[in-house]
Amino acid sequence: MKGKKKLRSPEKWKRSLKKQKLFKEKNKRRDVGNCRCKCGCKLSELEQIDIFERYCSLSSHAEQTIYLQGCVKKELKSRSRQRKDETSRSSTVFSYEVSNGSSIINLCQKAFLAVHGIFKSRLEKKVRTQAEPADNRGRHTNRPNRTKTESLQKVRQFISELPARESHYT
Fold it and tell me: How many CB atoms lie within 10 A of CB 68?
């Protein structure tokens, strides 16, 4: 008596579990906290959850980046204090806006990051450049499970060397 054939379950593979864990950690909404602008009071808990779910429901990484670029406004500095002989290195100011359906709300950077569940590095690298987002994930040559071309050639050669019989269908 033969045993039952084991079915594949890629969701239980070590590599898949690692990816899922990393994805859950990255897409975790954090507490807005308190700031001097009182950004925690500007949005209710339900509005924060709604914004976070809308952001996470975008289908691709590129769409998320385009959404974030639309929320971040880059403006020139309106005024600056004169210091001894030094000029300020920053000449621009970033403002962060979120739409809750009926109105647009300005938030500080910390609250904006917390509502969307992203990190500061994502905002700096992708959004502030204002470049068209190119998603190059998966475009690498590191394929640990790929069968080598030499092995494939040997298998094809072996099959072609097997004695051929004429089929009874012809």
Answer: 21
State the Cα–Cα distance between residues 97 and 39, nearest whole angstrom: 11
> Would you call 73 helix, strand, or coil by DSSP?
strand
pLDDT tens digits along 132-164 = 667 777 788 888 888 999 999 999 999 999 998
Which structure tokens are listed for 168?
A: 């009874």
Quote the radius of gyration of the chain (alpha carbons, Å): 27
- For 90-120, b/e burial (b = at least 16 CB within 10 A) is eeeeeebebeeeeeebebbebbbbbbbbbee
Q: Per residue, what are the HEC states of 26-45?
A: HCCCCCCCCCCCCHHHHCCH
Name which of 47, 46, 55, 67 is nearest 27 in CA terms: 55
